[in-house]
Structures are given as structure tokens and as C-alpha cells.
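User: Run a structure prediction on this.
Assistant: Running it now.
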Amino acid sequence: MNACRPTEGTTEEMATRHREDTLLAPGRSKLAPPPMFKVVLLNDDYTPMDFVVHILQHFFGKTQEQATQIMLRVHNEGRGVCGLYPADIAATKVAQVTGYARQHQHPLQCVMEEN
């Protein structure tokens, strides 16, 4: 007696067998896009403007002009949006920017907010 042997039909027959009374529901399931989060730099009185521009270019891929505009928004309005990302990427960017700023002894704050 072989316990591993199928009791009815071969494996090939079992894989191609269909049930006549089974119907699949028409249509497709829709997946919602992931929630997006803004990564925001907050103003402080100590972090140099050129360091903020460097952060924006290095971590967010901004051009010199884009980085300068965001830096001026941070300086004048107290905050500036760096980008919009899924939660895990936004959290990583916040951690990278905060760690880099601390490594260079700047109190720059970077946070994420749900869009």
C-alpha cells in the first residue's frame, strides 16, 4: 500500500478537471492607491539656508532652483513640502534627513503628514 499515491485520477487529470456548477464573479477587484504622505521641513533659527538647499537636492532630487524655492518657503512661512510619498518611503526620508542633520549638528526638523 502506497500512502502517497492519489486515489482517483492522475495529477494531470486533477489539474484539468472543471466543475460545471462553479461560476466566477464578473468584474475586477479595485485596489485603492496607498495613502500618500507629505514630507515637510520645519523652520528653525539655526540651520543654515545652504544646508537646507543641500538636503533638498541630496535627499529629494530637487534642482538648485527648486531647492532654493522650497528653502525660502521654509524660511518665510515656517514650513515647506519636500515631496509626496507612500508611508514607508516618507518615513525613510524623514529618518534620513533627521539623521543627516544631527550628524552635521543642525537642529533641522523633518516630519511627515498625511495628505
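DSSP finds four helices and three strands in the chain.
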